[in-house]
């Protein structure tokens, strides 16, 4: 399994607005294209104002195909513009994690 781990750091005071917009407009599009949401979290300790989410894929080829389809979806393009215009996200990072032979995932 390949896990796409993303961390978004919000502008302080903008976390709630980001989550509301994402849940209403972004999540349905991502679920349609990406399929396997493993988890969506907010931080309570450590670096604050962060959203962490994980999506699972069989391999890199599946991830590439699914993300390409999503990036070409006019609804996703419109959502990304709306989200960017809202000015909620300050910084983002992305890691691809490969599961070990003994991982439960």
From TrEMBL:
Name of the molecule in the record: NIPSNAP protein
Record-stated family: Belongs to the NipSnap family.
InterPro entries reported for this sequence: Dimeric_a/b-barrel, NIPSNAP, NipSnap_domain
Record-linked PANTHER family: NIPSNAP-RELATED, PROTEIN NIPSNAP
Domain NIPSNAP stretches: 4-104
A matching Pfam family: NIPSNAP
Coiled-coil spans in chain: none
Highest rank taxon of the organism: Bacteria
